[in-house]
Amino acid sequence: MSIFLVIAPDLPDSRRLSLRETHLLQSAVGRELGWNVNGGPTFSAQDPQKMDGSWLLLRGLSAEEVMGRVLRDIYAVEGAWDVEKIEVKKVGAKV
């Protein structure tokens, strides 16, 4: 399996905070199953206290497989992330 970096920017009217508890539960399941390596919020350059998206390190066989997992996350399904702008890149990482 390879490691992929995912950058998922929020929509301007993101529902991030109302969905956060479910997102964190989904992330914990991914860690238990071994495909979620790490992740967290990204912050706005204009307002360093404001979350404006997410970064994730995920294991997968392909970028397509990883994108499929990302698109099933509640942040993607319920309107926190701007799914049109999500980036998935294979990276070199020892984890």
UniProtKB/TrEMBL annotation:
<dbReference type="InterPro" id="IPR051807">
    <property type="entry name" value="Sec-metab_biosynth-assoc"/>
</dbReference>
<dbReference type="InterPro" id="IPR011008">
    <property type="entry name" value="Dimeric_a/b-barrel"/>
</dbReference>
<protein>
    <recommendedName>
        <fullName>YCII-related domain-containing protein</fullName>
    </recommendedName>
</protein>
